[in-house]
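User: Predict structure, ligand nicotinamide-adenine-dinucleotide.
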Amino acid sequence: MKISTDYNSGNYSIEVARGMLKDSITAYTGGYSQVHYLIDEKVFELHKGRMLAFIDHPILMGSGETSKSFEAFHYLLETLLAKGVKRNDLIVVIGGGAAGDAGGFAASCVLRGLDYIHVPTTLLAHDSSIGGKTAINSKHGKNLIGAFYRPAGVIYDLEFLNTLPDSEILSGFGEVIKHAMLKNQETVDHLVALTRNGIDLRRIEPFVISGIETKMQYVNRDENESDIRKYLNLGHTLGHAVEYKYKIPHGIAVVIGIYAALHISNQVEQYEIFDLSYYYCFFDNLGYPMDILKDIDAEEMLSLISKDKKNQNTQTAGYVILKEFGEAKFIEIEKETLGKYINDIKESI
Ligand SMILES: NC(=O)c1ccc[n+]([C@@H]2O[C@H](COP(=O)([O-])OP(=O)(O)OC[C@H]3O[C@@H](n4cnc5c(N)ncnc54)[C@H](O)[C@@H]3O)[C@@H](O)[C@H]2O)c1
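Assistant: Predicted complex:
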Protein backbone atom coordinates (compact mmCIF):
# COMPACT_ATOMS: atom_id res chain seq x y z
CA MET A 1 0.00 0.00 0.00
CA LYS A 2 1.47 3.33 -1.06
CA ILE A 3 0.01 6.71 -0.16
CA SER A 4 1.54 9.88 -1.60
CA THR A 5 1.51 13.49 -0.50
CA ASP A 6 -0.12 15.99 -2.77
CA TYR A 7 2.02 19.15 -2.58
CA ASN A 8 2.92 21.26 -5.62
CA SER A 9 6.45 19.88 -5.39
CA GLY A 10 8.62 17.88 -2.99
CA ASN A 11 6.18 14.99 -2.68
CA TYR A 12 6.99 11.75 -0.90
CA SER A 13 5.25 8.47 -0.41
CA ILE A 14 4.39 6.38 2.61
CA GLU A 15 4.66 2.70 1.93
CA VAL A 16 2.83 0.43 4.35
CA ALA A 17 3.35 -3.34 4.23
CA ARG A 18 5.00 -6.24 6.04
CA GLY A 19 8.50 -7.59 5.46
CA MET A 20 9.45 -5.24 2.58
CA LEU A 21 11.98 -3.13 4.49
CA LYS A 22 15.22 -4.10 2.76
CA ASP A 23 13.78 -4.01 -0.78
CA SER A 24 12.06 -0.71 -0.16
CA ILE A 25 15.18 0.95 1.24
CA THR A 26 17.21 -0.37 -1.70
CA ALA A 27 14.76 1.27 -4.08
CA TYR A 28 15.86 4.66 -2.68
CA THR A 29 19.59 4.19 -2.14
CA GLY A 30 20.76 3.88 -5.78
CA GLY A 31 21.21 7.59 -6.42
CA TYR A 32 23.23 8.34 -3.27
CA SER A 33 26.95 8.04 -2.50
CA GLN A 34 26.53 6.62 1.02
CA VAL A 35 23.69 5.70 3.35
CA HIS A 36 23.86 6.52 7.07
CA TYR A 37 21.54 4.55 9.32
CA LEU A 38 20.40 6.25 12.55
CA ILE A 39 18.62 3.65 14.69
CA ASP A 40 16.87 3.67 18.08
CA GLU A 41 19.13 1.40 20.16
CA LYS A 42 16.23 -0.68 21.51
CA VAL A 43 14.88 -1.28 18.03
CA PHE A 44 18.34 -2.28 16.82
CA GLU A 45 18.77 -4.69 19.73
CA LEU A 46 15.40 -6.32 19.06
CA HIS A 47 15.67 -6.55 15.25
CA LYS A 48 19.37 -6.72 14.37
CA GLY A 49 19.27 -10.49 13.96
CA ARG A 50 16.58 -10.46 11.30
CA MET A 51 14.96 -7.35 9.90
CA LEU A 52 18.04 -5.15 10.34
CA ALA A 53 20.67 -7.83 9.61
CA PHE A 54 21.64 -6.10 6.33
CA ILE A 55 22.81 -2.93 8.13
CA ASP A 56 26.49 -2.53 9.05
CA HIS A 57 27.81 0.08 11.48
CA PRO A 58 24.62 1.99 12.29
CA ILE A 59 24.70 5.10 14.43
CA LEU A 60 22.70 4.16 17.49
CA MET A 61 20.38 6.71 19.09
CA GLY A 62 19.20 6.55 22.69
CA SER A 63 15.92 4.72 23.20
CA GLY A 64 12.83 6.89 22.69
CA GLU A 65 12.73 10.38 24.16
CA THR A 66 16.39 10.30 25.30
CA SER A 67 17.33 10.73 21.63
CA LYS A 68 15.71 14.17 21.67
CA SER A 69 18.05 15.83 24.18
CA PHE A 70 20.50 18.52 23.11
CA GLU A 71 23.42 16.27 24.10
CA ALA A 72 22.13 13.34 22.04
CA PHE A 73 21.57 15.63 19.08
CA HIS A 74 25.08 17.03 19.39
CA TYR A 75 26.47 13.48 19.42
CA LEU A 76 24.43 12.59 16.31
CA LEU A 77 25.68 15.54 14.26
CA GLU A 78 29.30 15.11 15.33
CA THR A 79 29.17 11.37 14.58
CA LEU A 80 27.78 11.98 11.10
CA LEU A 81 30.51 14.54 10.43
CA ALA A 82 33.21 12.25 11.83
CA LYS A 83 32.00 9.57 9.40
CA GLY A 84 32.58 11.98 6.54
CA VAL A 85 28.94 12.62 5.63
CA LYS A 86 28.62 14.25 2.17
CA ARG A 87 25.90 16.28 0.51
CA ASN A 88 24.88 13.43 -1.76
CA ASP A 89 24.38 10.99 1.12
CA LEU A 90 21.08 9.61 2.37
CA ILE A 91 20.07 9.34 6.01
CA VAL A 92 17.72 6.53 7.05
CA VAL A 93 16.15 6.95 10.49
CA ILE A 94 14.74 3.80 12.07
CA GLY A 95 12.70 4.11 15.25
CA GLY A 96 9.56 5.59 16.76
CA GLY A 97 8.40 9.18 16.78
CA ALA A 98 11.30 10.30 18.96
CA ALA A 99 14.01 8.91 16.66
CA GLY A 100 12.07 10.27 13.67
CA ASP A 101 11.88 13.76 15.19
CA ALA A 102 15.55 13.91 16.21
CA GLY A 103 16.91 12.11 13.14
CA GLY A 104 14.78 14.20 10.79
CA PHE A 105 16.00 17.38 12.47
CA ALA A 106 19.62 16.19 12.18
CA ALA A 107 19.01 15.57 8.46
CA SER A 108 17.63 19.10 8.12
CA CYS A 109 20.74 20.66 9.71
CA VAL A 110 23.77 18.65 8.74
CA LEU A 111 25.51 20.23 5.73
CA ARG A 112 22.40 22.47 5.53
CA GLY A 113 20.10 19.58 4.73
CA LEU A 114 20.33 16.02 3.41
CA ASP A 115 17.63 13.70 2.13
CA TYR A 116 16.24 11.31 4.73
CA ILE A 117 13.86 8.42 4.94
CA HIS A 118 11.93 7.55 8.05
CA VAL A 119 11.27 3.93 8.94
CA PRO A 120 8.69 4.17 11.75
CA THR A 121 8.73 1.30 14.23
CA THR A 122 5.88 2.19 16.60
CA LEU A 123 2.13 2.38 16.20
CA LEU A 124 2.19 6.05 17.15
CA ALA A 125 4.67 6.80 14.39
CA HIS A 126 1.94 6.15 11.76
CA ASP A 127 1.13 9.70 12.80
CA SER A 128 4.48 11.32 13.61
CA SER A 129 6.25 10.17 10.45
CA ILE A 130 3.93 12.20 8.24
CA GLY A 131 3.79 15.94 7.94
CA GLY A 132 7.44 16.93 8.08
CA LYS A 133 7.64 18.17 11.67
CA THR A 134 11.03 17.47 13.21
CA ALA A 135 12.27 18.56 16.64
CA ILE A 136 14.32 18.04 19.75
CA ASN A 137 13.53 19.12 23.31
CA SER A 138 14.88 21.99 25.39
CA LYS A 139 15.01 22.39 29.15
CA HIS A 140 12.22 24.92 28.52
CA GLY A 141 9.89 22.33 27.01
CA LYS A 142 9.25 19.61 24.47
CA ASN A 143 9.79 20.05 20.72
CA LEU A 144 10.88 23.69 21.08
CA ILE A 145 13.81 23.40 18.66
CA GLY A 146 13.08 22.03 15.22
CA ALA A 147 12.09 22.56 11.63
CA PHE A 148 9.50 21.62 9.07
CA TYR A 149 11.52 19.27 6.88
CA ARG A 150 9.88 16.66 4.65
CA PRO A 151 11.37 13.20 4.34
CA ALA A 152 12.17 11.76 0.92
CA GLY A 153 10.02 8.77 1.85
CA VAL A 154 8.43 6.81 4.68
CA ILE A 155 8.70 3.03 4.81
CA TYR A 156 6.32 1.59 7.40
CA ASP A 157 7.10 -2.10 7.80
CA LEU A 158 4.44 -3.30 10.22
CA GLU A 159 6.58 -6.31 11.25
CA PHE A 160 8.34 -3.95 13.66
CA LEU A 161 5.16 -3.57 15.69
CA ASN A 162 5.36 -7.23 16.83
CA THR A 163 7.86 -6.30 19.55
CA LEU A 164 6.02 -3.28 20.95
CA PRO A 165 5.15 -3.43 24.65
CA ASP A 166 1.46 -3.02 25.57
CA SER A 167 1.98 0.52 26.87
CA GLU A 168 3.30 1.63 23.44
CA ILE A 169 0.38 -0.10 21.69
CA LEU A 170 -2.04 1.82 23.92
CA SER A 171 -0.13 5.01 23.22
CA GLY A 172 -0.20 4.56 19.44
CA PHE A 173 -3.85 3.54 19.50
CA GLY A 174 -4.62 6.97 21.02
CA GLU A 175 -3.64 8.58 17.72
CA VAL A 176 -5.50 5.90 15.72
CA ILE A 177 -8.75 6.64 17.56
CA LYS A 178 -8.10 10.39 17.19
CA HIS A 179 -7.86 10.01 13.42
CA ALA A 180 -11.07 7.94 13.40
CA MET A 181 -12.84 10.70 15.37
CA LEU A 182 -11.65 13.27 12.84
CA LYS A 183 -13.00 11.09 10.02
CA ASN A 184 -16.60 10.13 10.82
CA GLN A 185 -19.01 8.38 13.19
CA GLU A 186 -19.04 5.17 11.17
CA THR A 187 -15.25 4.77 11.45
CA VAL A 188 -15.38 5.39 15.20
CA ASP A 189 -18.21 2.87 15.70
CA HIS A 190 -16.42 0.24 13.67
CA LEU A 191 -13.12 0.76 15.48
CA VAL A 192 -14.73 0.70 18.92
CA ALA A 193 -16.58 -2.52 18.06
CA LEU A 194 -13.36 -4.13 16.86
CA THR A 195 -11.27 -3.21 19.89
CA ARG A 196 -13.77 -3.26 22.74
CA ASN A 197 -12.08 -6.33 24.22
CA GLY A 198 -8.49 -5.50 23.30
CA ILE A 199 -6.31 -4.16 20.49
CA ASP A 200 -5.32 -6.74 17.89
CA LEU A 201 -2.68 -5.04 15.71
CA ARG A 202 -3.46 -7.03 12.58
CA ARG A 203 -7.18 -6.30 12.81
CA ILE A 204 -6.70 -2.55 13.24
CA GLU A 205 -4.34 -2.25 10.23
CA PRO A 206 -7.06 -0.79 7.94
CA PHE A 207 -7.65 1.92 10.57
CA VAL A 208 -3.94 2.68 10.77
CA ILE A 209 -3.93 3.18 6.99
CA SER A 210 -7.08 5.25 7.14
CA GLY A 211 -5.42 7.32 9.94
CA ILE A 212 -2.45 7.98 7.66
CA GLU A 213 -4.84 9.12 4.91
CA THR A 214 -6.72 11.39 7.32
CA LYS A 215 -3.52 13.01 8.56
CA MET A 216 -2.30 13.42 4.97
CA GLN A 217 -5.47 15.28 4.04
CA TYR A 218 -4.81 17.87 6.73
CA VAL A 219 -1.08 18.30 6.18
CA ASN A 220 -1.44 18.46 2.40
CA ARG A 221 -3.77 21.42 2.76
CA ASP A 222 -2.07 23.22 5.66
CA GLU A 223 1.52 22.09 6.13
CA ASN A 224 2.54 24.91 8.50
CA GLU A 225 -0.44 24.57 10.81
CA SER A 226 -1.96 27.97 10.32
CA ASP A 227 -5.46 26.60 9.80
CA ILE A 228 -7.01 23.11 9.59
CA ARG A 229 -3.87 21.20 10.61
CA LYS A 230 -4.72 22.44 14.11
CA TYR A 231 -7.58 19.92 14.15
CA LEU A 232 -4.95 17.19 14.48
CA ASN A 233 -4.34 18.58 17.95
CA LEU A 234 -7.64 17.07 19.12
CA GLY A 235 -6.97 15.88 22.68
CA HIS A 236 -3.53 17.49 22.78
CA THR A 237 -4.18 20.70 24.76
CA LEU A 238 -4.96 18.95 28.03
CA GLY A 239 -3.09 15.86 26.79
CA HIS A 240 0.29 17.63 26.74
CA ALA A 241 -0.27 18.97 30.27
CA VAL A 242 -1.21 15.49 31.52
CA GLU A 243 1.78 13.94 29.70
CA TYR A 244 4.12 16.40 31.38
CA LYS A 245 2.65 16.08 34.88
CA TYR A 246 2.12 12.30 35.00
CA LYS A 247 5.07 11.24 32.81
CA ILE A 248 2.97 8.87 30.71
CA PRO A 249 3.42 8.04 27.00
CA HIS A 250 2.21 10.69 24.58
CA GLY A 251 -0.74 8.83 23.04
CA ILE A 252 -2.04 7.65 26.42
CA ALA A 253 -2.17 11.26 27.60
CA VAL A 254 -3.86 12.19 24.31
CA VAL A 255 -6.69 9.74 25.07
CA ILE A 256 -7.28 11.48 28.39
CA GLY A 257 -7.26 14.76 26.47
CA ILE A 258 -9.70 13.36 23.89
CA TYR A 259 -12.15 12.40 26.62
CA ALA A 260 -11.86 15.95 28.00
CA ALA A 261 -12.41 17.34 24.48
CA LEU A 262 -15.62 15.30 24.12
CA HIS A 263 -16.83 16.65 27.47
CA ILE A 264 -15.94 20.25 26.50
CA SER A 265 -17.61 19.79 23.09
CA ASN A 266 -20.87 18.88 24.88
CA GLN A 267 -20.51 21.94 27.14
CA VAL A 268 -19.70 24.41 24.38
CA GLU A 269 -22.40 23.16 22.01
CA GLN A 270 -24.83 22.91 24.96
CA TYR A 271 -26.24 19.51 24.20
CA GLU A 272 -25.11 15.95 24.67
CA ILE A 273 -23.39 15.25 21.35
CA PHE A 274 -21.27 12.49 22.86
CA ASP A 275 -22.26 9.81 25.36
CA LEU A 276 -19.41 10.42 27.81
CA SER A 277 -19.92 7.35 29.98
CA TYR A 278 -19.78 5.12 26.87
CA TYR A 279 -16.37 6.48 25.83
CA TYR A 280 -15.09 6.58 29.41
CA CYS A 281 -15.90 2.86 29.81
CA PHE A 282 -14.36 2.04 26.41
CA PHE A 283 -11.07 3.74 27.24
CA ASP A 284 -11.04 2.49 30.83
CA ASN A 285 -11.66 -1.08 29.72
CA LEU A 286 -8.74 -0.93 27.28
CA GLY A 287 -6.44 0.03 30.16
CA TYR A 288 -6.06 3.80 29.78
CA PRO A 289 -5.48 5.42 33.20
CA MET A 290 -8.73 7.40 33.18
CA ASP A 291 -8.50 7.78 36.98
CA ILE A 292 -6.00 10.56 36.35
CA LEU A 293 -8.98 12.75 35.54
CA LYS A 294 -10.10 12.45 39.18
CA ASP A 295 -6.72 13.62 40.38
CA ILE A 296 -5.94 16.57 38.12
CA ASP A 297 -5.70 20.05 39.50
CA ALA A 298 -7.32 22.60 37.17
CA GLU A 299 -4.96 25.44 38.18
CA GLU A 300 -1.90 23.31 37.56
CA MET A 301 -3.26 22.10 34.19
CA LEU A 302 -4.00 25.70 33.13
CA SER A 303 -0.51 26.75 34.07
CA LEU A 304 0.99 23.91 32.00
CA ILE A 305 -1.36 24.64 29.07
CA SER A 306 -0.18 28.28 29.15
CA LYS A 307 3.45 27.16 28.78
CA ASP A 308 2.66 25.18 25.63
CA LYS A 309 4.16 26.89 22.56
CA LYS A 310 0.76 26.64 20.86
CA ASN A 311 -1.01 28.51 23.67
CA GLN A 312 0.78 31.68 24.52
CA ASN A 313 -2.24 33.96 24.64
CA THR A 314 -2.62 35.06 28.27
CA GLN A 315 -6.43 35.17 28.46
CA THR A 316 -7.52 32.22 26.34
CA ALA A 317 -6.43 28.75 25.29
CA GLY A 318 -6.90 27.34 21.78
CA TYR A 319 -8.97 24.16 21.89
CA VAL A 320 -10.13 21.67 19.29
CA ILE A 321 -13.69 20.50 19.86
CA LEU A 322 -16.02 18.35 17.76
CA LYS A 323 -19.50 19.26 16.57
CA GLU A 324 -19.74 15.62 15.60
CA PHE A 325 -17.20 12.98 14.63
CA GLY A 326 -15.66 14.23 11.38
CA GLU A 327 -16.45 17.88 12.08
CA ALA A 328 -13.79 19.57 14.18
CA LYS A 329 -13.72 23.19 15.22
CA PHE A 330 -10.89 25.30 16.66
CA ILE A 331 -12.03 27.71 19.35
CA GLU A 332 -10.45 30.00 21.93
CA ILE A 333 -11.71 29.33 25.45
CA GLU A 334 -11.30 31.84 28.29
CA LYS A 335 -8.87 30.26 30.74
CA GLU A 336 -11.28 30.78 33.64
CA THR A 337 -13.98 28.89 31.72
CA LEU A 338 -11.52 26.13 30.78
CA GLY A 339 -10.63 25.76 34.47
CA LYS A 340 -14.33 25.33 35.22
CA TYR A 341 -14.69 22.69 32.49
CA ILE A 342 -11.70 20.77 33.88
CA ASN A 343 -13.25 20.82 37.35
CA ASP A 344 -16.60 19.69 35.91
CA ILE A 345 -14.90 16.70 34.25
CA LYS A 346 -13.27 15.80 37.55
CA GLU A 347 -16.54 15.96 39.43
CA SER A 348 -18.54 14.11 36.78
CA ILE A 349 -16.44 10.95 37.05
N1 LIG B 1 6.63 14.96 14.35
C1 LIG B 1 5.37 14.79 14.64
O1 LIG B 1 4.47 15.19 13.88
C2 LIG B 1 4.99 14.09 15.92
C3 LIG B 1 3.66 13.71 16.15
C4 LIG B 1 3.37 13.01 17.32
C5 LIG B 1 4.38 12.69 18.22
N2 LIG B 1 5.66 13.08 17.95
C6 LIG B 1 6.75 12.74 18.87
O2 LIG B 1 6.89 11.32 18.86
C7 LIG B 1 7.48 10.93 20.09
C8 LIG B 1 6.73 9.70 20.59
O3 LIG B 1 6.90 8.69 19.63
P1 LIG B 1 6.59 7.15 19.94
O4 LIG B 1 5.34 7.03 20.69
O5 LIG B 1 6.77 6.45 18.66
O6 LIG B 1 7.68 6.78 21.02
P2 LIG B 1 9.27 6.62 21.05
O7 LIG B 1 9.90 6.87 19.75
O8 LIG B 1 9.71 7.43 22.22
O9 LIG B 1 9.38 5.08 21.41
C9 LIG B 1 8.79 4.60 22.60
C10 LIG B 1 9.58 3.42 23.15
O10 LIG B 1 9.40 2.29 22.30
C11 LIG B 1 10.66 1.78 21.91
N3 LIG B 1 10.43 1.18 20.59
C12 LIG B 1 10.36 1.79 19.39
N4 LIG B 1 10.04 0.89 18.43
C13 LIG B 1 9.93 -0.31 19.06
C14 LIG B 1 9.63 -1.62 18.61
N5 LIG B 1 9.32 -1.87 17.33
N6 LIG B 1 9.60 -2.62 19.53
C15 LIG B 1 9.86 -2.37 20.84
N7 LIG B 1 10.15 -1.15 21.32
C16 LIG B 1 10.18 -0.13 20.43
C17 LIG B 1 11.61 2.95 21.96
O11 LIG B 1 12.95 2.54 22.16
C18 LIG B 1 11.08 3.66 23.21
O12 LIG B 1 11.56 3.07 24.38
C19 LIG B 1 7.42 12.10 21.02
O13 LIG B 1 8.71 12.65 21.14
C20 LIG B 1 6.50 13.09 20.31
O14 LIG B 1 6.83 14.43 20.59
C21 LIG B 1 5.99 13.75 16.82
